[in-house]
Amino acid sequence: MIAIGALREEDRADWEVLARGYKAFYRTAVPDQGYEQAWQRLRRGTEIHGIGAWSDGKLVGITHYLFHATLWMEDSCYLQDLFVDKAARGQGVARMLIEEVAAASRERGASRLYWTTQEGNTTARALYDKVASFKGFLRYDYPLG
């Protein structure tokens, strides 16, 4: 049985393990202090939101999302991060997390829910192709620093 809901204060340590797994997958370095800052932003819940998935009381999946204005439509929801512990994969956890973000998007009246992933992330893309539609966009990052 998988339970889905808002991240709780007692999830801090388990959340960081999953967040570090997510960042390692995408080869993105975050200093230790960055995890604490991210956690505090999630706990405020004013701009960035976090949802967890628990199996037998253990946090096994996380997702982070945010709403933002768009010029041509109502607010959009960007699902920024999604990560499921390797041992819990294949049990529908990622799909449940996406559906929970979709419910939050509908409740807010957002016009769109979207996310990005690496082209070679075939495992995740197999799920994404079932629950969403690929519109052909590629992302470019301009270095600001």
UniProtKB/TrEMBL annotation:
CDD domains named in the record: NAT_SF
Alphabetically ordered keywords of this record: Acyltransferase, Transferase
EC main group: transferase
The UniProt record lists the keyword Repeat: no
Top-level taxon: Bacteria
Keyword Acyltransferase: yes
EC numbers, comma separated: 2.3.1.-
Record-linked SUPFAM superfamilies: Acyl-CoA N-acyltransferases (Nat)
Residue stretches making up the N-acetyltransferase domain: 5-145
Single GO MF descriptor: acyltransferase activity
Protein name: GNAT family N-acetyltransferase
Species this chain originates from: Streptomyces lutosisoli
